User: Fold this.
Amino acid sequence: MTTALFPLLARVLLALMFAQSGYAALSNPAGTAAYFAGLALPLPDLLPWAVGAFELLAALCLIAGIVTRPVAALLAVFAVAASVLGHYGQGETSQLAFFHQQMLLKDIAVAGGLILLAIHGPGAFSVDARRG
Assistant:
Protein backbone atom coordinates (compact mmCIF):
# COMPACT_ATOMS: atom_id res chain seq x y z
CA MET A 1 0.00 0.00 0.00
CA THR A 2 2.66 2.54 0.95
CA THR A 3 4.76 1.93 -2.17
CA ALA A 4 1.65 2.61 -4.26
CA LEU A 5 1.84 6.22 -3.07
CA PHE A 6 5.30 6.78 -4.57
CA PRO A 7 4.12 7.22 -8.18
CA LEU A 8 1.55 9.76 -6.97
CA LEU A 9 4.24 11.61 -5.03
CA ALA A 10 6.53 11.54 -8.08
CA ARG A 11 3.77 12.92 -10.32
CA VAL A 12 3.02 15.76 -7.90
CA LEU A 13 6.70 16.66 -7.44
CA LEU A 14 7.31 16.68 -11.19
CA ALA A 15 4.14 18.68 -11.82
CA LEU A 16 5.04 21.43 -9.34
CA MET A 17 7.78 22.84 -11.56
CA PHE A 18 5.49 23.05 -14.58
CA ALA A 19 2.52 24.41 -12.62
CA GLN A 20 4.62 27.21 -11.15
CA SER A 21 6.24 28.02 -14.48
CA GLY A 22 2.92 28.00 -16.33
CA TYR A 23 1.33 30.21 -13.71
CA ALA A 24 4.27 32.63 -13.86
CA ALA A 25 4.04 32.85 -17.66
CA LEU A 26 0.30 33.52 -17.58
CA SER A 27 0.43 36.00 -14.70
CA ASN A 28 3.18 38.08 -16.34
CA PRO A 29 2.78 37.63 -20.10
CA ALA A 30 4.65 40.86 -20.92
CA GLY A 31 7.69 39.82 -18.90
CA THR A 32 7.61 36.33 -20.33
CA ALA A 33 7.26 37.72 -23.86
CA ALA A 34 10.29 39.96 -23.27
CA TYR A 35 12.29 36.93 -22.10
CA PHE A 36 11.23 34.94 -25.17
CA ALA A 37 12.05 37.90 -27.44
CA GLY A 38 15.50 38.05 -25.83
CA LEU A 39 15.99 34.42 -26.83
CA ALA A 40 14.98 35.34 -30.40
CA LEU A 41 12.03 32.95 -30.31
CA PRO A 42 9.26 33.49 -32.87
CA LEU A 43 5.92 34.99 -31.82
CA PRO A 44 7.13 36.13 -28.38
CA ASP A 45 3.77 37.80 -27.62
CA LEU A 46 1.82 34.59 -28.27
CA LEU A 47 4.25 32.14 -26.68
CA PRO A 48 3.58 33.06 -23.01
CA TRP A 49 -0.07 32.13 -23.43
CA ALA A 50 0.62 28.90 -25.32
CA VAL A 51 3.48 27.80 -23.08
CA GLY A 52 1.73 28.84 -19.87
CA ALA A 53 -1.49 27.05 -20.77
CA PHE A 54 0.43 23.93 -21.87
CA GLU A 55 2.47 23.80 -18.66
CA LEU A 56 -0.54 24.33 -16.39
CA LEU A 57 -2.75 21.82 -18.19
CA ALA A 58 0.05 19.25 -18.35
CA ALA A 59 0.79 19.72 -14.64
CA LEU A 60 -2.86 19.14 -13.77
CA CYS A 61 -2.91 16.01 -15.94
CA LEU A 62 0.16 14.68 -14.16
CA ILE A 63 -1.26 15.35 -10.71
CA ALA A 64 -4.57 13.66 -11.52
CA GLY A 65 -2.94 10.91 -13.56
CA ILE A 66 -4.95 11.65 -16.70
CA VAL A 67 -3.37 10.55 -20.02
CA THR A 68 -0.19 10.35 -17.99
CA ARG A 69 2.09 8.52 -20.38
CA PRO A 70 1.68 10.84 -23.39
CA VAL A 71 1.68 13.95 -21.20
CA ALA A 72 4.88 12.84 -19.47
CA ALA A 73 6.51 12.12 -22.83
CA LEU A 74 5.50 15.55 -24.18
CA LEU A 75 6.76 17.26 -21.03
CA ALA A 76 10.08 15.42 -21.29
CA VAL A 77 10.59 16.74 -24.82
CA PHE A 78 9.41 20.18 -23.72
CA ALA A 79 11.80 20.22 -20.73
CA VAL A 80 14.82 19.38 -22.85
CA ALA A 81 13.85 21.85 -25.59
CA ALA A 82 13.14 24.64 -23.11
CA SER A 83 16.37 23.93 -21.29
CA VAL A 84 18.48 24.03 -24.43
CA LEU A 85 16.75 27.18 -25.69
CA GLY A 86 16.73 28.96 -22.34
CA HIS A 87 19.92 27.84 -20.62
CA TYR A 88 22.48 26.47 -23.07
CA GLY A 89 25.24 29.00 -23.75
CA GLN A 90 23.54 31.75 -21.71
CA GLY A 91 25.37 34.09 -19.39
CA GLU A 92 28.34 36.42 -19.70
CA THR A 93 30.04 35.78 -16.36
CA SER A 94 31.35 32.49 -15.07
CA GLN A 95 28.91 32.70 -12.14
CA LEU A 96 25.94 33.16 -14.48
CA ALA A 97 27.22 30.48 -16.87
CA PHE A 98 27.44 28.05 -13.94
CA PHE A 99 23.85 28.90 -12.95
CA HIS A 100 22.59 28.25 -16.48
CA GLN A 101 24.53 24.99 -16.64
CA GLN A 102 22.93 23.86 -13.38
CA MET A 103 19.47 24.80 -14.65
CA LEU A 104 20.11 22.90 -17.88
CA LEU A 105 21.14 19.79 -15.96
CA LYS A 106 18.14 20.12 -13.62
CA ASP A 107 15.75 20.25 -16.57
CA ILE A 108 17.43 17.25 -18.17
CA ALA A 109 17.11 15.33 -14.88
CA VAL A 110 13.41 16.24 -14.73
CA ALA A 111 13.07 14.94 -18.29
CA GLY A 112 14.59 11.67 -17.08
CA GLY A 113 11.94 11.37 -14.39
CA LEU A 114 9.23 12.15 -16.92
CA ILE A 115 10.56 9.44 -19.25
CA LEU A 116 10.34 6.92 -16.41
CA LEU A 117 6.77 8.07 -15.76
CA ALA A 118 5.94 7.70 -19.45
CA ILE A 119 7.35 4.17 -19.47
CA HIS A 120 6.00 2.87 -16.16
CA GLY A 121 2.72 4.78 -16.00
CA PRO A 122 0.98 6.77 -13.29
CA GLY A 123 0.51 4.09 -10.65
CA ALA A 124 -2.59 2.99 -8.76
CA PHE A 125 -3.71 6.39 -7.50
CA SER A 126 -4.63 7.93 -10.84
CA VAL A 127 -7.54 8.48 -13.16
CA ASP A 128 -5.75 6.32 -15.74
CA ALA A 129 -5.67 3.36 -13.30
CA ARG A 130 -9.37 3.80 -12.50
CA ARG A 131 -10.22 3.66 -16.20
CA GLY A 132 -8.37 0.36 -16.48
About this structure: The chain has a mean pLDDT of 91.
